[in-house]
Amino acid sequence: MSDHALPSPHDWVRRHSPPGGIERIEAWFGGHGYDPHRHDTYAIGQTLAGVQSFHYSGALRHSLPGATMVLHPDELHDGMAGSAAGFRYRMAYIDPASIQQALGGETLPYIRGGLSDDLRLRCASQVFVQALEHPLQALEEQDALYDLAVALRVVAGKPRGRKRPDYQAAERARGFILEHAEQDITLEALEQVSGRERWSLSRDFRALYGTSPYRYVTLRRLDRVRAMLLDGFSLVDAALAAGFHDQSHMTRYFTRAYGVPPARWLQRLRA
């Protein structure tokens, strides 16, 4: 690994995550940014300066200013500077459930390679990658989500040869998860509440929301961990309150989801 790939003490992340709204960040990294990890959201953004490199879908990709990054939910990726100059970028994390409000139960659109030069996607994502100093009004956000969903569908093209998922059954399961994320949830319980055979439900859940029911539970628990850490709770208290066995259990899943341990995540936000 070259010197410029090492973590920089001057790396920083600015984050805006209003209650019930879309999480957006702006960040700068001088070298290594994130270890391999997976979100259960779309990560949609733009490189503002420098070369933003990342491994994705079996290849090393390079994002330059002018392109749009569209990382699919649950796709493994990392992040690093592609040159000694470092890179700066903005990213929005879009819940697939919000996209489904416009798609109405279609398989999630997939943008191959995680990068697109299509102007329709760039325009549709512009609202979400504007400066964090400009908060999104509720109606503005909803309009932009619809435009983004349509652009994703058009640019990705419709998948062929797959039966339409049972959206209502999957939504019932997702609602149950949101209400009981801190508890021990089983496929049997999801089968009962959704009215759908468990393996069909699991397959449809992945198609509609981009991840498995278990991963969805885990990420909701991590959402609570992040909120508690920002409120000043200790790692161990946040882990136990969110439903993890202990701090090390939570830290392992946190790093897999965000590419950095929780203490490092907090440090960057406070830089």
Instruction: Please state the structural category.
Output: alpha+beta
Helix content: 40-55%
- Report the total helices: 10
Q: Can you tell me the overall shape?
A: globular
User: Which stretches are low in confidence, meaning pLDDT under 50 for 5 or more residues running?
Assistant: 1-7
CATH topology of the largest domain: Jelly Rolls
CATH class of the largest domain: Mainly Beta
Q: What's the rounded overall pLDDT mean?
A: 92
- Give the CATH architecture of the largest domain: Sandwich
Largest sheet: 6 strands, antiparallel
- For this entry, what is the oligomeric state of its chains? single chain
Domain module count:
3
Distance between the termini: 25 Å
Instruction: Summarize the helix and strand pattern as letters.
Output: EEEEEEEEEHEHHHHHHHHH
Strand arrangement across the biggest beta sheet: 1-2-9-4-7-10
Mind telling me the C-alpha Rg? 18 Å
What fraction of the residues are assigned to beta strands by DSSP? 15-25%
What would your notes on this structure say?
It contains ten helices and ten strands. It is an alpha+beta fold and 271 residues long. The protein has three domains: 3-156, Jelly Rolls; 167-210; 216-270, Orthogonal Bundle (Arc Repressor Mutant, subunit A), CATH 1.10.10. The strands form two sheets. A six-stranded antiparallel β-sheet has the order 1-2-9-4-7-10. It starts with 11 loop residues before the first strand and ends with a helix.
